[in-house]
Amino acid sequence: MELHISPSSPFVRKTRVAILELGLEDQVEEVISIPWDEGSADVMQNPVGKVPALITDDGESLFDSPVICEYLDSLSDKATLFPPISPARWTALRRQALADALLDAMIARRVEGNRPGDADTEYWIDRHWTAVQRSIDEMARTIPAAGKPIDIGDIAVAVALAQLLYRFGDQDWRPARPELASWFEGMMQRPSFEQTYPVDHERSR
Ligand SMILES: N[C@@H](CCC(=O)N[C@@H](CS)C(=O)NCC(=O)O)C(=O)O
């Protein structure tokens, strides 16, 4: 299988962490595909031109990160990141959705912050940042019990919180949320997170 990645993408990181947690690293070749490069949507076979995209051994392309993670999960006999139908499944999927939505809001806030300002810019920055803060508060309210097996919700939440520190390190979410910070530090010590630290890749334009 081929996983199209850009090394700074948190959605890519979710899939890379999942691959390591599931023990599938020998079956996946990583290919750097920068979405901003001409023709990358065709190479990735993803019409919306975003990473990650996974090309399966049958030549099918799969996107986006939740679909890729669930597909990878179906291939592993080592572990499962998607609990079977039960309350635990909805908790895991809800936490994944929360984390992905936090990242969407964080990215939108970053884009807005990099635009030449107009009257609406402050409104949108505030709106996106408020969504980010509410999402972190929700994560702090729903910290998993100690010893619970890791699932896709845990991976997604930890990736999102790590990306916030990577992109907005000057607005550290940890001091006001010590219990979430302590859970997060435990996640960051897993080899799957240590081996997937984000790196900015130079754009060709
Ligand atoms: N919902 C998608 C989001 C993927 C996404 O937004 N990827 C970003 C990189 S972090 C991207 O490729 N952006 C390029 C673009 O917006 O054209 C997922 O979970 O995979």
Give a written overview of the molecule:
This protein is of the alpha+beta class. It folds into two domains: 2-80, Glutaredoxin (3-Layer(aba) Sandwich); 87-190, Glutathione S-transferase Yfyf (Class Pi), Chain A, domain 2 (Up-down Bundle). Helices cover 53% and strands 6% of the residues. The protein is built from eight helices and four strands. It has helices at 10-22, 40-44, 65-75, 87-114, 121-141, 152-167, 178-188, 191-194, and strands at residues 2-5, 29-32, 53-55, 61-62. Strands 2-1-3-4 form a four-stranded mixed beta sheet. The longest helix is centred in the middle third of the chain and has 28 residues, at 87-114. The model has no long low-confidence stretch (mean pLDDT 94). The structure holds glutathione. Glutathione is lined by residues 9, 11, 35, 49-52, 64-65, 100.
